[in-house]
Design brief:
It is a single chain. With 53 residues, the chain is mainly beta. Helices cover 8% and strands 28% of the residues. It contains one helix and four strands, in the order E-E-H-E-E. The longest helix has 4 residues.
Length: 53
């Protein structure tokens, strides 16, 4: 069994003003969640949002 790694990206709506979040939508189908993190603290906590939300 392989474990998928998140492929992080910033929204095209981010204005590079330092208030950005990153998401990893590639895990929505396989895990049912969309991880979200602060783009300034990439090693920090990750919030897993249900894909249906």
């Amino acid at each position: 069994m392989t474990t998928a790694s998140p492929r992080w990206f910033k929204s095209s709506y981010s204005d590079n003003g330092g208030q950005c979040v990153e998401v990893a939508t590639n895990l929505a189908a396989s895990h049912g969640t969309v991880p979200v993190r602060d783009s300034k603290v990439v090693g920090g906590p990750v919030l897993d949002v249900p894909a249906g939300a």
